[in-house]
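Below is one such protein, fold included:
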Amino acid sequence: MTGVVRGELAVDGRRLSYLDFGGDGRPLVALHGHLSEGAVWGRLAEELAGEWRVIAPDQRGQGESERAAEYTREGYLADIEALLDHLGVEKAVLLGHSLGGINAYQFAARHPGRVEAVVGIEAPVVLGLEGPNPLAFLLGLPYRAPTRDGLIAGLGPAAPYFADRLRQDADGGWRLPFHPKDMYDSEELVHGDHWADWTATRCPALLVRGTEGVIPAGQAAEIVARRPGTAAVELAGDHLLPVTAADELAAVVREFLATL
């Protein structure tokens, strides 16, 4: 898209980078999930252009944002608050995928006056109470290598998922757009029972669930039933709807936003 601007702000001495897709529309902050970055919302920004100003941060430790000392819930929420303050945005729609969706409804629970609506895409309310960390495979991956080819070789079967987003550092070396251990820790710290946060607010909300995603059908029904003002849409697809069903997702979000 033309007119996209990359901006940044300092939060606790580190760089938090974001994409501002521009326009004079109402503000919508789009939060990506683990192993992603703000650019994943390009198709959504196209669909909403003219009516909504989409602002998509690279969340801490991912994309162009620098690594943080920790990846706690409160740390992520403080980043969102700092971004809104930096932009001079008093109130916005918060939309997020997976980790980003959880960040969105938890921020709304703590700052209800700053959130017009919440859109959670494959964003569970209860997760990780049983079973291993699904990002444990990252711990076997290299973070950095002297050459791009060397890093791709070291990534092995994971290379196709990240090859087009590798970063080159000033010294010529290449690295992943996230640190594997950071993302493993972040996943650990997002696990839990978040019903209190989900049910704390009454602004309009939308849950988008993939038929092959991570939210069980029973939990999705409960997410809607336990919180007034919540709608739900099911899309054919897996957990990675912003990538695997980008057009369908953009249309669903636009339809929901038109009701606000």
Summary: Residues 5-127+192-257 form a domain with the Rossmann fold fold (CATH 3.40.50.1820). The mean pLDDT is 97. The longest strand covers residues 230-238.
